[in-house]
Amino acid sequence: MNIFETLYNEFIGFFGIGGIIEMVKKNDYSSLTTWAGIQNLIYPIIPLLLLIEVVRAIVYKRFKIEDYKLSFMVFVLNRFISRFISIAAVGFCIGLFEQWAIFKTDITWYWLLYGYVIWEFAHFVYHFLAHKVRILWCLHSTHHAPQQMNLFVNFAHFFLEAPYADVIRTSICIILGVSPPLLFLIMFIDGLWGSFIHVGENIIKNGRLGFLGKFLLTPSHHRVHHARNPLYMDTNFCNLLNIWDKVFKTYQDEKSEIKIEYGITRKINQNNILDAYFGEIVCLWKDIVKAPGIKNKLLYIIMPPGWSHTGHHQTAKIARTGYLSEQDKNVKNDEGSADQLQPGQSFS
């Protein structure tokens, strides 16, 4: 296989148009009446939106190569490292846990609703742990490293994160009765929506999606999730239904008066893919080496990012709590100042 054929196959694979090309070559469109044929039409939607996003940015002179560079380099690196690990993890978990399922479901509208609620819970568990357990944050932080939001961020992941995520999500779903066919349908829908919520402002300026934001996790919600602002950190862990964020009180709307600052709190070199890919692992290793005693070394692995054996913690929870306390204090001070005004007086 020569380099041009390789590049052609990568192009076809990235844009998901292999199935469409095959139908056109054979001049046989009968597969469009099947689920596989419908999938062939749906797969190219997100790559097409990404292309439109880039073109619009260029046309309106808002395109910056650095906004896409880091995510693109991570995507390319992952193509070389691994392609099938996540699929193997899903298959392993289905084979291991299907016999322990509490009951069996089928592909009907009511079981789809049940399955999606369970899937969303499983996704919440994986995503919450990815932010609250430092060794798992080392895998997840690559996805949060880009300092702008666009559809290419969806492709920026540490190669081991998908297998770990799918082990948790698949295991919970299978045990709670979500059948493999139903699970694969849900994973397809969720993957499509999970890509869409990374859409940048060049496509959708206001990502709140109107009334849909009441029960769906929108691009606006996910922009909040990718922010490093103290109010926004460690919120909106769901993917499509925001039910579990509301149940576990991690739900946060985007505030128009707070400009989102994307990225992670650690300063990274946006031109250095190794820093984005391995930087958190290096920082964890340094903390483990410096920590006194086995207990503290182990705690650095399982405690939240920002935890310190010295007691001077700088976790996202502490930063958010401190911000909210400061806001409450400011509100009380403003109310106190207003109460002290005499009739006819006003602030200068």
UniProtKB/TrEMBL annotation:
Segments traversing the membrane: 41-59, 80-103, 109-129, 172-196
Pfam families: FA_hydroxylase
Polar residues: bias regions: 339-348
Keywords, in A-Z order: Lipid metabolism, Membrane, Oxidoreductase, Transmembrane, Transmembrane helix
Taxonomic classification: Bacteria, Pseudomonadati, Bacteroidota, Chitinophagia, Chitinophagales
Name the UniProt record assigns to this protein: Sterol desaturase family protein
Span list, region Disordered: 329-348
Membrane topology of this protein: Multi-pass membrane protein
Subcellular location as annotated: Endomembrane system
Domain Fatty acid hydroxylase: 113-250
Top-rank lineage group of the source organism: Bacteria
